[in-house]
Design brief:
By secondary structure, this protein is an alpha/beta fold. It has 4 domains: about 5-135, 3-Layer(aba) Sandwich (Rossmann fold), CATH 3.40.50.1390; about 160-265, Putative Large Serine Recombinase, Chain B, Domain 2 (Hect, E3 ligase catalytic domain fold, Alpha-Beta Complex), CATH 3.90.1750; about 290-350 and about 430-475, no CATH class; about 355-425. It contains 13 helices and 15 strands. The chain has helices spanning about 20-35, 55-65, 85-100, 115-150, 180-190, 195-200, 205-215, 250-265, 320-345, 355-385, 390-425, 425-440, 445-455; strands spanning about 5-10, 40-45, 75, 100-105, 110, 160-165, 170-175, 220-225, 235-240, 290, 300, 305-310, 320, 455-465, 470-475. The strands form 5 sheets. The chain has a 5-stranded mixed sheet with strand order 2-1-3-4-5, with helices on both faces. A 3-stranded mixed sheet has the order 10-14-15. The protein has a 3-stranded antiparallel sheet with strand order 11-12-13. Helix 1 links the parallel strand 1 and strand 2 (about 40-45). Helix 5 crosses helix 8 (about 250-265). The termini are far apart. The model is unreliable at about 265-275 and about 350-355 (pLDDT under 50). One of its GO terms (molecular function) is DNA strand exchange activity.
């Protein structure tokens, strides 16, 4: 009586040409069944052999059919096609043994109910699991080395670029959509919000945000390393950045100015994202804050006149908008004069104290990181020598790893700030403010004036005193 068997073919996505490899596996398993007179049902997957069991849909379906008593054997090219996970290999083996199902490969037939053969199966599963970890580690290291050389190793290509092979190196080159990216950056640099840009460009709001936050448009290769897959809650442990890895679509200066403009459209905690909403009926929309309790001040239109609302928290008195605007323009004139004086002085300076502070901060962080690395090394040695138990070592390691991740994240922020300082001198920043102010003076449209003011002003603190005098303080970006 001929056997009715299950053919199981699995191909990992990382193994090259999926179709050709899977076709080869089909030929081998089908030929084996035909030569031995087996009837069969095929199950196929394109997935890593170490994936979670719930993701192995075809394997689960086959095991369910095994439990129904449909098969006498499972035919596969090699044991590793069933699983590369030691834990899942045991689950598969227990299911097959319980229902007296053999495993047949071109090299061997395994009866899992025979102790010696089960023992060999377990050894083979352990070897496959270790081989997978070794291959995975080598592939990861190979990807990291390629990224450090400036090769584009990520799967997804940023909008506006094409991934091409030049001299055996995978890199990015701008395509026809690069002009769209430049327009998006230009709008953002001039104070337009993501939603307004999305509306103008006919794109999703999230797509605009992703484009504007992507540093790779400056020609800088950015590759993030995770402690485990993002789909499984992985966190970033390191970021590889290689400047001038490929042709830039936007200058680095533009990218940094856009990041500053995007931050400027957030109020208070950046995570709150209290964005500007509604019609612009005053040039101070979203800029005016109570000087007493630091709460954003609202406006109200009554009988054709605009009024500043009383503070909802401290009940500080409001005022007519015209009176506040008069005080604002007076204060702005003083601020402009101050900026111009600072700009003239800054032209004579070659460096800033802030830059020095950032350098000191970076050196301190790097020293802290070095100390933690040494501490981790000593803990590992103590565990190896039997001074620490495994539990003590793992507890220390988890705590140190957490600190290292925090330091690395802070280091990246500081390095970004230093990079900005290298690109933007104090004179550049002040000149930009003065240029924006000149544009404001020529405009009459409230929306446009408000948009430009937000590029150079963070907040305007308002207070009406008991004698009804108005005090304003402009806080620049």
């Amino acid at each position: 009586m001929s056997k009715h068997v299950a053919i199981f073919n699995r191909k990992s996505r990382s193994e090259g040409d999926t179709d050709e490899t899977m076709q080869n596996h089909r030929q081998i398993t089908r030929r084996l069944c035909e030569e031995r007179g087996f009837t069969y049902i095929e199950y196929e997957e394109v997935i890593s052999g170490a994936s979670a069991l719930e993701e192995r849909t075809e394997l689960i379906r086959m095991l369910q059919d095994v439990e129904k008593g449909l098969f006498q054997a499972v035919v596969t090219v090699e044991l590793s096609r069933l699983s590369r996970s030691g834990h899942y290999s045991h689950i598969i083996a227990d299911t097959l043994a319980e229902h007296n199902v053999l495993i047949i490969t071109p090299r061997e037939t395994i009866d899992l109910n025979i102790d010696s053969q089960r023992f060999l199966y377990d050894i083979g599963s352990a070897v496959n699991s270790n081989e997978y970890r070794t291959i995975k580690r080598r592939m990861r290291q190979g990807i990291i080395e390629k990224a450090k050389r400036g090769e584009y190793v990520a799967g997804k290509v940023p909008f506006g670029y094409d991934a091409v092979i030049i001299g055996k190196k995978r890199t990015l080159v701008p395509n026809d959509d690069a002009d769209i990216v430049r327009v998006i950056y230009n709008l953002a640099e001039n104070g337009y919000g993501n939603k307004e840009i999305a509306k103008r460009m006919g794109k999703a709001h999230k797509s605009i945000e992703n484009i504007l936050r992507n540093k790779q448009y400056t020609g800088t290769l950015v590759y993030q390393l995770y402690n485990k897959p993002r789909t499984k809650g992985g966190i970033i442990t390191d970021v590889i950045e290689v400047p001038n890895a490929f042709e830039a679509i936007v200058p680095m200066e533009t990218h940094f100015r856009v990041q500053a403009a995007m931050k400027g459209r957030l109020r208070g905690d950046i995570d709150v994202k209290a964005r500007s909403r509604g019609e612009v009926r005053t040039i101070l929309k979203d800029l005016l804050y109570c000087n007493v309790c630091n709460i954003k001040t609202g406006f109200n239109l009554d009988r054709g006149r605009m009024y500043i609302k009383a503070c909802p928290k401290c009940r500080a008195k409001g005022a007519q908008e015209s009176v506040v605007l008069e005080a604002f323009y007076s204060q702005l004139e003083f601020v402009e004069k101050h900026w111009r004086e600072l700009w003239e002085k800054a032209l004579d300076k070659s460096s800033s104290a802030i830059g020095d502070d950032l350098t000191v901060q970076m050196e301190t962080l790097e020293q802290s990181r070095s100390k933690l690395t040494n501490k981790l090394k000593k803990a590992r040695e103590a565990y190896t020598e039997g001074i620490f138990t495994k539990e003590e070592y793992l507890t220390d390691k988890a705590a140190i790893d957490k600190e290292l991740i925090s330091i690395d994240q802070t280091l990246k922020q500081v390095k970004d700030e230093i990079e900005k300082r290298d690109l933007f001198t104090d004179s550049d920043m002040l000149e930009h403010r003065l240029t924006v102010l000149e544009k404001v003076k020529k405009l009459t449209n409230l929306t446009e004036i408000n948009r430009l003011l937000k590029l150079i002003i963070a907040l305007v603190y308002y207070q009406r005193n008991e004698d009804d005098s108005i005090e304003l303080m402009i806080a620049p970006k």
